[in-house]
Amino acid sequence: MTDAGQGTHAHYVVIGDNPLAYRLTRALSTRFKGTVTVIVPDATSRYAQEMSAVDGVTLLEAGRIDEEVLTDAGADRAAAAALVHQDDGGNVALALLLREAWPELHVVVRIFDGSLGRHLERDHCTVLSASAFAAPEIVGAALRRLIRLPVQHRRLVAVADGETELSTRMVLFATAKDGTVTALPSAEDLKDLRPKVHLADAAEEDVLPEIKADLEPDEDEVDPHRRRRFGEYLRTLAITSGWNLLLAAGVLLVVVLIGAVTIRLATGSSWAGALYEAVLPSLAGSDPDHEANPVVKVTQVALTIVSVAVIPWVAGVVVDGVVRTQRLLDTGSPLHPMADHVVVVGLGDLGTRIVRSLDRRGVPVVAVDFDESARGIAVARARDVPVVIGDARRAATLRAAYVDAAQAIVVVTSGGATTIGIGFAARSIPRSKDGPRRLRTVLRVFDKDLSRRIRREIPDSVGLSSSFLAAPSFAAAMIGQEVKATVPYLDRVLVLAEIMIMEGSELATMHPTAVDFDGAQENGDEVKSRLLAIRTKHLGGGGGGRTIEPSEGWYLTGGTTIVVVATTAGLRRLRELARVPVPRAQVATGLNG
């Protein structure tokens, strides 16, 4: 381990070749001033080339990663290592190897399967899921609803544009007339800006039901009492059988009624007796009655002959309807027209979490994927979420998901061109009179410039990246910070974090206003932060550990924890001020191994 310790100016190892690896590597090298060695399977890939162009980053190509490769990457002197492959099994294997070779090395592992992650997570090992951080924000963007921020002593809510019911604490994002976004604007800035996202205090009764859920667990927790009702089965049977069943049943009913009327007129019996005499030969056949009235005999013969043709017809229609109904129920296709729902395209890790999150909030959702074996298909079917299998770039597939009446479409496919194509295809579907007037379009887009251009081409759209939303949390875990949540707006993001103030650090004994940064620039990033709360130090004899409001009469002390909302550059600056400075000679010794 390096003497520099975990934090800034340290060495890090990143294993992965994807957008998250790139954003994480860039954050560690530029914002946290560390050196990074990235292990990739192919040094010529797109993200490998982009990572190699960042100052302080060294690329190491390896088809198979073993202890020798990790040593060459500097794992023996690293402050932390991040395993961000999209393969849970491969990440677990590497985590176990690192734990065995360097037990004191802090390892951050990207894992989708939460049950697997809980078995792996111990001291010096942090398990995170990129989709777990991104899914709530994407759901909030699709629903245009509030995002709750977790702070123990109060309920903080990020309120979107147009929502002003709650008491505003501060403005998180504001825009100028030309659309330029300003994060954490000052009171002076707000004179010329339009507030877009507020931070407000909310009482329990003020918070909407859809934002009460925390990050979704990895297990597919289906309500055991949630079962398909018999009425739903009958409705589906009626839909699949259609007019054939009605026509067959109608013909049989007319035959029975005509026979009953004829028998009653011929015999003078009651209506009940006449129906009895008519039903027997029609449905089951009856023994011949040689002493019966000739008219009755003729009627019974006619009913029997007609029923020979009608009964198989009715039975065939019913059997066909039952088979088609069961097939529809098994595949999970939409059983009836839907409106005011959310269409989720792409059922990988992120799409699965989004579907689960929407369903748990009671929002109607339709899942779409080209591959029937996609990870989220089974999850959707287990939750009775309708599933459409097909290419979402085709109008027929989108119509099958009733996108014309949907309130939003969320596209989280892996290919950039595919994602954009689906977004344009969805906008080309004429809107239904039964659904919302506008379709909210949320696209998974890595490039922020492309996201900005798409917003100009597709009205009421937003482009978000799961790696963009998750990278601050992964970087914070590697340098010893805890990021509690992220608040995105267009191509900007703020983080809510808790930072421990160490004894002897610059922040110790300072006034709380020292935490509020405003306006500085560092490597092109704004250094901004706002103090939200202070968590006092636990006392040895009991007491302490209270979360309080920042006040003029309270100074920061070592051992206390501050809760802040900040830009990622502002978070890095606070982290530096909250830790004890390391002498330059000691840092140099650590970096040189």
UniProtKB/TrEMBL annotation:
<keyword id="KW-0812">Transmembrane</keyword>
<feature type="transmembrane region" description="Helical">
    <location>
        <begin position="236"/>
        <end position="263"/>
    </location>
</feature>
<keyword id="KW-1133">Transmembrane helix</keyword>
<dbReference type="Pfam" id="PF02254">
    <property type="entry name" value="TrkA_N"/>
</dbReference>
<feature type="transmembrane region" description="Helical">
    <location>
        <begin position="301"/>
        <end position="323"/>
    </location>
</feature>
<dbReference type="InterPro" id="IPR036291">
    <property type="entry name" value="NAD(P)-bd_dom_sf"/>
</dbReference>
<dbReference type="InterPro" id="IPR050721">
    <property type="entry name" value="Trk_Ktr_HKT_K-transport"/>
</dbReference>
<dbReference type="InterPro" id="IPR003148">
    <property type="entry name" value="RCK_N"/>
</dbReference>
<protein>
    <submittedName>
        <fullName>NAD-binding protein</fullName>
    </submittedName>
</protein>
<keyword id="KW-0472">Membrane</keyword>
<feature type="domain" description="RCK N-terminal">
    <location>
        <begin position="339"/>
        <end position="463"/>
    </location>
</feature>
